[in-house]
Amino acid sequence: MSDQGLSVVIPVKGRVPQTHRLLESLRAAIEACEEPVEVLLVDDSEPADARAHQEHCTTFAARYLRGPRHVGAKRNDGVRAAAYDLILFIDSDCLATPQLLRRHTQTLRGADERVGAVAGPTFVQGADNAMFRIMSRSRLLNSAFEWPAQARQVGWATTCNLAVRRDAFEAVGGFAERPLTVVGGEDVDLGLRLTEAGHRIVCDPEALVVHDKSSIESLGTVCRRLITYGRSGQWLLDVHAGRGRPKLNRVSTLSATAIAGPLLLPAVAAVLLAADARQRLGDDAPTLRSLAESIACAGLDWCFDLGEFIAAWQLGRPDRLFTGFGWTDDPAFVWDREPAQRYGG
Fold it and tell me: How many domains does the chain have?
């Protein structure tokens, strides 16, 4: 049986400066926590970065572990090595706020046994560049980070800020270690399995994490993240088959149009893009800048659909080219206020 306390598990590859900042931020959070805390860094970096991580772990009294490639497998290794009965998962490109650990431990200790996990919101640092302004309109990129500030309970949560009871985590088998992508989807799968096993995931809006802005500063990073999210959705349909729903996949639609009537392709693309841009414009006054940002965001969000399209073929499931994963189609989500942005659609 584990001792009472909190083990913080951080999976990492590279990201030496970001991880140093995270470890430094955890120092104040540990001092504010009323329970014993340990920090475990599970790393598969190249040798130079690995040495730097080891030095930083020594500086901040964290435990360094060599781990596998997949992020879910790293987190599982961290839990297996952990000493305590509560586990907090946080990502290497995040910062802990001073009350983060105290809030998670108090919320879990004060909850009844049906509560298996606590999700806290994650807010992305602002960046004064065009990409950040454009993607702040996205329905997909960071919306799940903010759901714990909008809901009392969720059916799953991102594991950049999720505390779990170790016994509940182990009872459902931990994270999937071989999903379709190295990272992406394993957090959703864990949450759904916890919920299906009868555990609730409650939200604490004051258990805050800050996400590094580098994840949204460049075109390449944004596109890769969205494609990964789309691909992970198709993998989730393999392991949670009952959660599929019909979806107007834009990439599938354009591909079908190109085959059936290529001359119609520009018109169909324009109609789809205009409709999606209008949604992203929201209540903003239609200035030239807001229109341009909404159109650009809509086009980039199609990378999510591209990921679904690619994975449907990769998994040998072309029948799912117009099927999406029901990310929040679940009574386990209890909203205090309806989120402005959800996955899919």
Answer: 2
Q: Are 19 and 31 in contact (CB under 8 A)?
A: no
- Kindly state whether residues 211 and 83 are assigned to the same domain: yes
Per-residue pLDDT at 214:
78
Say how far apart CA 8 and CA 103 lie, in whole Å: 14
- Residue 36 pLDDT more than 60? yes
Q: Is residue 341 part of a domain?
A: no
Find out whether 92 and 17 touch, Cβ atoms under 8 Å: no
Co-location of 206 and 248 in the same domain:
no
Query: 217: closest CA among 133, 277, 294, 342?
Result: 133
Strands 244-246 and 200-203, by their bridges, are unpaired
Cα separation, 96 vs 207, in Å, equals: 9
* Side chain identity at residue 99, one-letter code: Q
Rounded to two decimals, what is the model's pTM?
A: 0.93
For residues 181 and 235, the answer to whether their CB atoms sit within 8 Å is yes
Domain span at residue 82? 3-221
Give first-to-last CA distance, the chain, whole Å: 44
Residues 105 and 136 in one domain: yes
Residue 336 lies in a domain: no
Do 175 and 143 form a contact (C-beta atoms < 8 A)? no
If one counts every other C-beta atom within 10 angstroms of the C-beta of residue 297, the result is 25
CA distance 176 to 164: 16
Q: How many residues does the chain have?
A: 345
- pLDDT value of position 338: 65
HSE-CB for 285 with a 13 A CA cutoff: 1
